[in-house]
User: Fold this.
Amino acid sequence: MNIGVPREIKANEFRVGLTPASVRELTARGHRVLVETGAGVGIGAGDEAYRAAGAAIANTAAEVFAGVQLIVKVKEPQPVEVALLNADHVLFTYLHLAADPAQARGLMASGATAIAYETVTAADGSLPLLAPMSEVAGRLAVQAGARCLEKVMGGAGLLLGGVPGVAAAEVLVIGGGVVGGNAIRMALGLEAQVTVLDQSLPRLRSLAGEFGSRLNTIYATRETLEHYATRADLVIGAVLVPGAAAPRLITRELLQKMKPGSVIVDVAIDQGGCAETSRPTTHAEPTFIVDGVVHYCVANMPGAVPRTSTYALNNATLPFVLKLADAGWQAALRADPHLARGLNVCRGQLVHPAVAEALGLAHAPADLAA
Assistant:
């Protein structure tokens, strides 16, 4: 199969869909890989590294799209990339369509087959291709939040861990999944006072067993959310409904009760955000302030550490890329129901029910891809 890796063009995005090591695995199986020049510069992999792995180098994204069937990316295609897609293409990348109706319409109009990393599942119901970036984002959320608490960033002027004689900051993590668990680990490591809210008692028990009395585990209700959000110096939004829009848990009314100079890091922004006042930002301009509360809502947080992120992502995606390349997308999806759950758009129609529900659109039956 001919496989294409275009250079990512979203603002301040330096990750790349395939590492040279992943390319080598594909070319060793007889596949042809076409990489856009400069695609790997952000992770320290130049064109020569890709050539050494067996790839050919294309001068433009248009050349990549025109010469391949399977396109492997990191972030959702930008409008100029959507315009290059056609019915012969299979796109494998993060899509987050529930919060992006324009992209959904563009993909449907293109006729391309779009498989989203974030809705591929594992046997235990987890999301194996979202997990690596959730790990990175959860850890980065604490770094970003600590920075935003500094006065020069509009924050209250607090050191996250305090010092002897001065109280540490209070951190609230909303959601105890992969993002939340990694945020908790980092915040506790910096000696903050940490509370996690979740509605899964088994997950709260697991977190309590892992972190002990250092972590305050609380069952999530409207009352407990309001109580802890209004006390917090840093709130990390780590909620996820697979494929669907994130619930807007922090209302404008609740925001107005929060401390002046407090910070929200909304990791759920890819799915629309968990605060009513959240809107996507970039690494170039990562924050804004509403009602005295600093909002950090960068939609591609792991892009800040592209080398770590790319290698972590490839560790998870490569087995699925190999399946798609070796068998073809239809046979691969028939053979692997977990990969099949990644199918979001096919033959001009939405096929993922949660995405369709979030966008208020009808969805086609899953066997459309057969």
User: Anything to note?
Assistant: Residues 131-304 form a domain with the Rossmann fold fold (CATH 3.40.50.720). The chain has two domains: 2-120+306-369, 131-304. The mean pLDDT is 95. The longest strand covers residues 193-198.
